[in-house]
């Protein structure tokens, strides 16, 4: 515990760590499409959508001259390609907007709200997500996430795992990197945070990608905390 006594704030990856994006989106779209009378393989579309996530951010990195593009806009561009690829007919502009904002309506994992509430009693807690500010704010309202503030890649105009996101979060909180702990279900995110001086906590979400999950079943790095859920992190930090 001594090496963690300096920690004053916890920042969280959100998609997959705090919220169950895959199950949420598939359920949302299946219900919505029945009301609209639109037929599509929503499971395949959701998996394909997430599959385009990293590549869409890499495209922003490769072309800094074009300026930063927030995640809602990247999601919309990817969705339009997938609608064409899957030959989904009858979608209006309002439908495309509703589907894109599905990422604003994600349900938390069962332990998330209670665990965050415990951690909030002792620490400043915030997302540190590639989601844009409006997305994360709307999601917090929808899912009941008790953040103290919203920190997004949009504030730094850099997507994780760029150093500017992790160091920018510490700077906004007026803290040293070692006074901030990154919490994630993704070993790669934690590796980048650790490289930039943040403390790290891993919680496994082995069903994040459903049957397509290939990595992150367990901790693969020397993280400061490894726990089965947010309650376990709270236990380790004395909350």
From TrEMBL:
InterPro entries: 2-HAD, HAD-like_sf, HAD-SF_hydro_IA, HAD_sf, S-2-haloacid_dehalogenase. CDD domains: HAD_L2-DEX. Keywords: Hydrolase. SUPFAM superfamilies: HAD-like. Pfam families: Hydrolase. GO terms for molecular function: hydrolase activity, acting on acid halide bonds, in C-halide compounds. The keyword Repressor does not apply. This is 2-haloacid dehalogenase. It comes from Bradyrhizobium shewense.
């Amino acid at each position: 515990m001594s090496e963690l006594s300096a920690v004053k704030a916890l920042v969280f990856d959100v998609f997959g760590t705090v919220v169950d994006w895959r199950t949420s989106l598939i359920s949302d779209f299946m219900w919505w499409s029945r009301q609209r009378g639109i037929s599509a393989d929503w499971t395949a579309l959701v998996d394909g959508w997430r599959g385009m996530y990293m590549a869409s951010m890499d495209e922003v990195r490769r072309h800094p001259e074009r300026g930063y593009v927030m995640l809602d806009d990247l999601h919309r561009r990817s969705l339009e390609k997938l609608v064409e690829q899957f030959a989904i007919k009858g979608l209006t502009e309002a439908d495309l907007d509703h589907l894109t904002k599905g990422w604003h309506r994600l349900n938390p994992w069962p332990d998330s709200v209670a665990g965050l509430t415990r951690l909030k009693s002792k620490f400043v807690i915030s997302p540190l997500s590639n989601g844009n500010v409006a997305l994360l704010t709307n999601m917090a309202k929808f899912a009941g996430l008790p953040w103290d503030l919203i920190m997004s890649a949009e504030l730094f105009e850099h997507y994780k795992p760029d150093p500017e996101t992790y160091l920018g979060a510490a700077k906004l909180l007026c803290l040293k990197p070692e006074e901030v702990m990154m919490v994630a279900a993704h070993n790669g995110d934690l590796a980048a945070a650790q490289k930039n001086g943040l403390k790290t906590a891993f919680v496994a979400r082995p069903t994040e990608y459903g049957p397509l999950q290939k990595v992150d079943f367990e901790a693969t790095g020397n993280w400061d905390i490894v726990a089965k859920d947010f309650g376990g992190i709270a236990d380790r930090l004395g909350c």
